[in-house]
Amino acid sequence: MNTDTTPKFAAASDLSAFQKDQYVRSSLQSLPSFSGGALQRFDTWLETFEAIMYDSDMTEKDTILELYKKMTDKAHRTMKYILHSGNDKFEAIKEKLLDHFHGDETTEKSLKKFKKANRKPGEKIYDFAIRLKELFRYAYPKNYEEDSFQIILKEKFIDGIGEKLQMKVKYKEFRTFDELVAATRKYSVRMEAIESNKERHEFVNAINHTSHPNNSEIQEIKQIVREQHETVNAIASALKQGNKQAEETATDQSEIANCIQELSKAVSFLLTKDGKQQHVQKQTKLAASTTQITAVATESKCFSAARV
């Protein structure tokens, strides 16, 4: 029995080690490279790297190699210089890198950044909380975990989230900073939903108002159209009866042009105000009126020619 179970146990152990190695390598691949740019903090990045390597069975030499492979640009050149200087211990290399990227930082600088920190436009609540917590940690390196100092962190968070959200959480009690952040995020989601609905209703109301213009305006424009229509009919009737005065009026190109222009303006404005539902009907009327005016002008020319 013992001879049968020992190989099985060894095989299971090997499988577990293989899975662990695959997990570590997958996590390292997912970890972004560190370039040494201003947008990345090496100490924060290093914490993630060390957390991944903590569960691995790699030797110190392999760990240094993996760290070196994750460095790019300025950071790669810096680590290459450190390695060429004769440092071959992970802790020594880590201290050199920390000193290079954060050696000129002081508590005073971190404190100034912490006091000036505010939530940026479009920044998520959790992202602002993480950023503020990082600044707080470097501003108060020895006391940031104490309860009394957590009050400072909570007050600064509330101060930096904006007036509307402040009113939701400012006068409530929260045992921890994480509870405050979670509650703030909940209120933020609700307020964003309310604002979205409000904007949608305003947009719909604006469309409805445009689609249903004032009835008095419509009646006034219709009256203008009727008057123009009557003028055209009067000219046509006078021409048919051979009225000389009407003939002179009809042959006056400027008067006909003015009549057409006024009619076009009135009908165009009516189409704009009366909405899409009456669009086809008004265009039909406009076409009919224009056709009638053209016919009158043509008939006028014929009548004048006949009299000559």
Number of strands: 0
End-to-end Cα distance, whole Å, is 133 Å
Q: What is the CATH architecture descriptor of the largest domain?
A: Orthogonal Bundle
Which percent bin holds the helix content? over 70%
- Based on CA atoms alone, the radius of gyration comes out at 41 Å
Number of helices: 14
Q: Low-confidence runs (pLDDT<50, min 5 residues)? A: 5-13, 302-308
Q: At the first level of CATH, what is the class of the largest domain?
A: Mainly Alpha
Q: Estimate the strand proportion.
A: under 5%
Largest sheet: none
Spell the H/E element sequence.
HHHHHHHHHHHHHH
Task: Give the overall form.
Answer: elongated
Which fold name fills CATH's third level, the topology of the largest domain?
Non-ribosomal Peptide Synthetase Peptidyl Carrier Protein, Chain A
Structural class: mainly alpha
Summarize model confidence as the mean pLDDT: 73
Count of the domains:
3
InterPro entries: PNMA_C (IPR048270)
Protein name: Paraneoplastic antigen Ma-like C-terminal domain-containing protein
Pfam family, one: PNMA
Question: Can you characterise this structure?
Answer:
- The protein has 14 helices and no strands.
- It has 308 residues and is an all-alpha fold.
- It folds into three domains: 2-102; 107-209, Non-ribosomal Peptide Synthetase Peptidyl Carrier Protein, Chain A (Orthogonal Bundle), CATH 1.10.1200; 214-307, Methane Monooxygenase Hydroxylase, Chain G, domain 1 (Up-down Bundle), CATH 1.20.58.
- The N and C termini lie far apart (133 Å).
- InterPro entries: PNMA_C (IPR048270).
- It comes from Daphnia pulex.
- This is Paraneoplastic antigen Ma-like C-terminal domain-containing protein.
